[in-house]
From TrEMBL, chains A, B:
NCBIfam families: F420_cofC (TIGR03552). The keyword Iron does not apply. The gene is cofC. The lineage of its organism: Archaea, Methanobacteriati, Methanobacteriota, Stenosarchaea group, Halobacteria. One of its GO terms (molecular function) is phospholactate guanylyltransferase activity. This is 2-phospho-L-lactate guanylyltransferase.
């Protein structure tokens, strides 16, 4: 199945500015994107990066600088999947569950109301990534056929905020996790959940 | 399978103090606990609440006021499962995947390094809930046999912080979600992930 991997190439991951500089954020975002494309490939999908700007990539790239919703919607010819480029915990197993799930529309929710992955097998679905998109996508999907939800922690964690980096250090198995370790990011215990700290800047 | 449901009965959920008063936090914690026990029951498990203090409950209760690790460890006679009482998104389906997963030890990671659910089928495993417990539990499990990890968003979200309430409003299907709605909690859109706000206090 064709799998679109949307990627924001200009000023990526600004919410990680507390621990990573601009060039580092770009490097880390690229590492996550490569991990996602590799995992999609291992799961039997054919990844195409849908990038806001030209990038170097071992995988096919199409460039579209429009907002995410429009750029994805124009390429939603079923069967097709959309998997975000910042799912640093995604494994071939998790993506196989996604791509193999039955249903006209398959949704994988993200933390905080996002929609981290979608499989579309019906021509009448459209995306809307604004706000709490998982609620909108459920509604749109309910109007056009059967909807399946994939219950996956690995697909639910998109890496946007500093705390998310703890999940990558704890559970990541790819280049992005290695990149963070080499950059000196470490788990830091707090009263509640674990977060990260940085002992050294390169 | 016997399923222990640890519950901190005294001053529960203090990190929700920004949006819920003390009595409300106790009510909400009880609603989550009931949802978890019902879901465990529907998944074919036999829930027993392991409470720090005496509570009223439709399910069996044992009281043990020691720290979590000791209280659980003393009751870890296999086969047995441990499912936290604040997994407000847990469904019978998610718990069936947990209870039905093969392996001497089955782990369901929580956000921020926690261990939200465990199945123990080997007598040599012990728990350690301090710090990033999922890393410790993986290590302990690796020493005693085969370990399986259940990849579930619904089991990964334990409700500790205000942002977690957004997950309950978005994905919850039980009493806890209803309780939040009736208390006037609503989704609030921010720049990134959705959180909650409260328009009215009862």
């Amino acid at each position: 199945m064709d799998v679109l991997v949307p990627f924001a190439a200009s000023r990526p991951k600004t919410r990680l500015a507390g621990v990573l500089g601009p060039d580092e954020r770009a490097e880390f975002a690229a590492a996550m994107r490569r991990d996602v494309c590799s995992a999609v490939d291992s799961a039997g999908g054919s990844p195409t990066v849908l990038s806001t700007d030209p990038i170097e990539s071992a995988w096919p790239v199409v460039v579209d600088d429009r907002p995410l919703t429009e750029a994805v919607d124009d390429r939603l010819e079923p069967p097709v999947a959309v998997v975000m480029a910042d799912l640093a915990l995604a494994t071939p197993e998790a993506l196989s569950r996604l791509l193999g799930a039955d249903g006209g529309v398959v949704l994988a929710p993200g933390l905080g109301g996002g929609t981290n992955a979608i499989v579309v097998r019906t021509p009448d679905f459209h995306v809307d990534y604004h706000g709490a998109s998982i609620a909108d996508h459920r509604r749109i999907a309910a109007d056009v056929g059967t909807t399946t939800t994939v219950d996956s922690f690995r697909l639910a964690v998109d890496v946007d905020e500093t705390d998310d980096l703890a999940e990558v250090l704890l559970h990541g198995e790819g280049q992005a996790a290695r990149w963070l370790r080499e950059a000196g990011l470490e788990l830091e215990m707090t009263g509640g959940r674990v977060t990260v700290s940085r002992s050294a800047r390169r």
